[in-house]
Structures are given as C-alpha cells and as structure tokens.
Amino acid sequence: MSTKNRVIIHISQLEKAHVLDFEGVLNAEIFEIEDSEFLKMHDDLHYKFQCRYHVGGIELNGKVWTMVQSKCGRCLKEVQEKVEAELKLFFDEIKGIEDLDVTEELREELILEIPMNFICSEECLGLCPSCGINLNEKKCSCNQVEQKEPSVWDALDDLSL
Ligand SMILES: [Zn+2]
Ligand SMILES: [Zn+2]
Question: Among 82, 84, 103, 140, which residue has the least CB neighbours within 10 Å?
C-alpha cells in the first residue's frame, strides 16, 4: 500500500492552529476487502472531519462514507448503497508523537457500518421459495395455493379423529 493513501495529522501544526479541517478521499484499496458476489467495494473512502487540539489529546469529529455494490438479500437484484459512519474519536496518547496516522481508525469505523444484508426496498417481495420466480415482477401459481380461501374441509383436517 502506498504511503500516500493515508490520513495523517501533524500534531505541531494542529497545536498551533488549535482546530483543523480535513476532507478528501482514500483509494478503495484501503479497504482490503476481496470482491464477493454480495459485496464489492470499488468506491473511494470519503472523509470529512474536524480535529481539535486539547492539552490531553486530540478530538476528531466528522464522518466517512463510500458507495458499495451488493445484491438484494431477498430478490438478488444488484443494489448500490451508501454506507456512512459518524466519527467521534479521541486520541489521548499523543506525547512525543509528531504525526498521528488515523487511516486505520477511519477504515474500521466505516467497515463496522456495512450491513450484513442489503435489500433493494422495504417492499421487496423476494423470490418464491418453491419456483424461484421474482415476485416483484410476476405472480406464480405456488403463491395462489397459499392464498386460497379457507374452507370447512381445512377445519375438519385439523381435527384429530
Ligand atoms: Zn429485492
Ligand atoms: Zn412460485
């Protein structure tokens, strides 16, 4: 990994300025996540945060985000979704440190926000478990069997004779 693909806070600079704003991108290779059918991370890691100097440490507030490609867990349609994480970090061991590298923290906070399961919409009907048809596009006959009107014969079936 190249040394350029890092976010580094120069402590003496921050001590002088007291507050510094950071905004930019890290190349997607930072994620170190292999492509899979259900997760592709090809977008950059975007960051925007503010650092504040305190005598006892450095406070970092802001956010990180990226666009991920996945598949709907119900109907398998391709979906693109923004994943965003709030940053509220405090670094208290800064004595004797000149450059504070926060790249790992930004990466970890964002990865923690990736959901286990994406869905294309709350209303997605998914695939029929019997015939595999996409129920958002078509109805199948398996579904109709389930939805038939209850009859007196069903009630009789439930009786143990
Ligand atoms: Zn879906
Ligand atoms: Zn079906």
Answer: 82
Ligand 2 center from residue 6 Cα (angstroms): 50
Ligand 1 centroid, distance to 135 Cα (angstroms): 9
Is the pTM higher than 0.70? Answer: yes
Specify whether 151 is located in the same domain as 73: no
Distance between Cα 18 and ligand 1 center (Å): 48
Query: What size, in residues, is the chain?
Result: 161
What is the tens place of the pLDDT at every residue in 30-79?
A: 999 999 989 999 999 999 999 999 988 999 999 999 999 999 999 999 99
2 in any annotated domain: no
Helix or strand or coil: residue 105? helix
Q: How far is the CA of 125 from the centre of ligand 1 (A)?
A: 7
- Residues of the domain holding 137: 125-161
Quote the number of domains for the chain: 2
